[in-house]
Automatic annotation (TrEMBL), chain A:
Signal sequence coordinates: 1-27
Name of the protein in question: Extracellular solute-binding protein
Entry keywords, A to Z: Periplasm, Signal, Transport
Claim: Signal is one of the keywords in the record: yes
Gene3D superfamilies per the UniProt record, alphabetical: Periplasmic binding protein-like II
Main location class: periplasm
Example of a GO biological process term: polyamine transport
Organism for this UniProt entry: Microvirga brassicacearum
């Protein structure tokens, strides 16, 4: 008798432990690892109103930190991440931090098929697709057209005419942009590390010589916004979304696709390998692709949502900014960066270090 | 006998939190870092054991230049902090009336109530080209055009001194407080000039505080991250930034860990050298007789 009671006790204790272990998975918190402004409070409120059993928990980050965070835990701690499309495959190969996407769970017909395909091609590892697109946009130049009207190419940031009045971000975009402006094609050299190093050497020399011309290297959108709005900087490398947002505050600040072509990027939805709320993640993805949410999303992020009618659904003032900046011809010239093969980022990192450590006069 | 055991037990219990803290949060992570730094990457998710990361550091001038630069600037900051901190500490401990001492001391603490980040942004607001100081100078008519005070090494040094000077003042005040005023009087009575009294009596007495302050300040400066990054310009690479870059932007934990180990070893070496050169011992700064 006594024995069975003990057994019962043990069993119920065991049951309780198992239940406790399961509970977090059932309580449904969607832990979102994303960029600043990609998950506005209003959208979260609407989402939580529609799915009362899901609570959304947002962490803001950037490409590098997202990968670093997921790498540290082997893909745990978050249920949905939003890395750039050309960083997914290499990170997956190196660190195994994502799980494949079940495309059948994405509401069909909403996402732009071209962007969908491009994302799928770049994020396929071992025949499995890891990402769907969310936002897309371009990197290019931002100018105050009253003060720096002649800036139209990446290398114009190094024009001595604007000495101490330009800014850029010391990341791979400026390396690639400068390479294109010098008439080279870095993407073509992706397969050949030696050739790529040669291009990088030239670019490094150019950017070190240019250092004197640059006021400061910006680190994030807020930095850049302050520099531009205060008038301390008149021409800068930028994400188009940052420029579009500034257009509201100062219509003289416009986005300029560089003449060698703006660099297009796609930020994706990707599932971390040890995510615990895949269903909620798919619900979020489908939720934010609805037309009325798309407009809200674009209003805060300044970027274009990757749905078929993403452009048309931009808020009024932003559509104006986009129309003022981008023509059909520019769109044809967009450069979609191919996935970054292993080894390339090491070389680029070294080049960036050299530029940062070099002294300007 | 029993009492002795109880004593031992209470000592052990009291020490446990400290030991756990030291072991789990300081020693183990450091060992982990050393472990990672000895790992060589041969391919995706494949590693071997080796010293390649340390070799890479030696072979790349950028890395050790940054480390040297950080060390030199940290020493400069330490020296300036001592220069600024000593008079303040001396005033609080020896000259100010006893009743206002606490208030003055508290006043020194006020900046610490605000986070590092906010203080750095405070400097940015003041010093930027369209900032307050530049604007004020133009309004008075001292300068004609706007002037950029941010983004250079001098700004970084000033910002760092401001951040760390308190950690110089606290140990100095506590040592100087313990100094008997009659020592000074005796010095003066025996005909010592102010300078002699200061050099032969005050400084030697305050030495433990000076050494302790310098060590804390130097270590804090060399390991600081926010101030150099936010105030520094396009040239000012700080070694901690290098470590962050290796870990986060370049996904190169091995080399980041190596740099971490090297920073610890190098700063410890500088402190040891400083102690050797000034003829001090670490023990005298901790235990006061």
């Amino acid at each position: 008798m006594k024995r069975t009671r003990l057994k019962g006790l043990l069993a119920s204790a065991l049951g309780a432990t198992i239940l406790m272990g399961l509970a977090p998975a059932e309580a449904k918190t969607l832990r979102l690892l994303t960029w600043g402004s990609y998950a506005p409070d209003k959208v979260i409120q609407l989402f939580e109103a529609q799915y009362p059993d899901i609570k959304v928990d947002v962490t803001f980050s950037n490409n590098e930190e997202m990968i670093a965070k997921l790498r540290a835990t082997g893909g745990a701690g978050y249920d949905l991440a939003q890395p750039g499309f050309n960083r997914v495959a290499s990170a997956q190969l190196e660190f195994d931090i994502y799980k494949p996407m079940d495309l059948s769970k994405i509401t069909p017909g909403r996402i732009d098929p071209l962007l969908m395909e491009r994302t799928a091609t770049e994020t396929t590892v071992d025949g499995k697709v890891y990402s769907v697109p969310h936002f897309w946009g371009t990197s290019g130049l931002m100018i105050d057209k009253t003060k720096a009207p002649s800036v139209s190419g990446w290398d114009d940031l190094c024009d001595p005419q604007y000495k101490g009045r330009t800014s850029m971000r010391l990341k791979r975009t400026i390396l690639l942009g400068t390479a294109f402006a010098m008439g080279k094609d870095p993407f073509a050299a992706y397969g050949d590390l030696g050739a790529y190093q040669k291009i990088l050497d030239d670019v490094t020399a150019k950017l070190i010589a240019c250092k004197d011309n640059v006021k400061a290297y910006w680190q994030g959108g807020d930095d850049l916004t302050t520099l531009m709005l205060s008038g301390e900087v008149v021409a800068a490398e930028t994400w188009d979304s940052t420029a579009f947002r500034l257009f509201k505050h100062n219509p003289n600040i416009v986005y300029v696709p560089p003449k060698t072509g703006a660099h297009a990027w796609i930020d994706t939805f990707t599932l971390p390998r040890k995510g615990e709320a895949d269903d909620a993640a798919y619900k979020w993805i489908n939720f934010v692709m609805q037309p009325e949410i798309v407009t809200m999303m674009s209003a805060t992020s300044g970027a274009i949502v990757a749905t078929k009618d993403g452009m048309a659904l931009l808020p009024e003032d932003m559509r104006k900014a986009v129309q003022a900046a981008i023509t059909e011809k520019d769109v044809e010239k967009f450069r979609f960066a191919p996935g970054v093969p292993p080894g390339i980022e090491d070389l680029e990192g070294k080049a960036l270090e050299r530029i940062k450590a070099a002294s300007s006069k | 006998m029993l009492q002795k055991d109880a004593q031992r037990l209470s000592l052990l219990l009291l020490l446990t939190p400290f030991l756990l803290w030291i072991l789990l949060l300081v020693v183990l992570p450091q060992l982990g870092i050393v472990g990672i730094s000895l790992r060589e990457k041969v391919g995706p998710r494949q590693f071997t054991f080796g010293l390649a990361n340390y070799l890479a550091f030696v072979q790349e001038p950028i890395y050790w230049n940054t480390l040297l630069r950080t060390a030199v600037m940290s020493i400069l900051v330490t020296f300036l902090a001592l220069l600024v901190g000593f008079p303040v500490a001396y005033y609080i401990a020896k000259i100010a009336p006893y009743r206002s001492q606490t208030a003055l001391f508290l006043l020194c603490l006020v900046p610490l109530w605000v986070s590092d980040l906010v203080r750095a942004f405070g400097w940015i607001v003041l010093l930027r080209e369209t900032g307050l100081i530049s604007g004020a100078l133009q309004a008075i008519g001292i300068i004609k055009g706007p002037i950029e005070l941010l983004y250079n090494d001098a700004t970084v040094v000033v910002g760092l001194v401001y951040t760390v000077v308190l950690f110089m003042i606290v140990p100095l005040v506590s040592t100087l407080n313990g100094m008997d005023n009659s020592l000074l009087e005796a010095g003066h009575n025996l005909g010592g000039s102010r300078i002699t009294v200061f050099r032969r009596i005050v400084v030697p007495y305050a030495m433990p505080g000076i050494v302790a302050g310098c060590i804390i300040v130097f270590m804090m400066t060399a390991g600081s991250y926010l101030t150099p990054i936010l105030l520094g310009g396009k040239n000012s690479m700080w070694f901690t930034e290098q470590i962050y870059d290796q870990f986060i932007t370049r996904y190169n934990w091995e080399s980041g860990a190596t740099f971490g180990v090297l920073l610890l070893a190098f700063t410890s070496f500088v402190v040891w050298l400083g102690l050797r050169l000034t003829g001090q011992k670490l023990a005298t700064t901790v235990a006061k007789d």
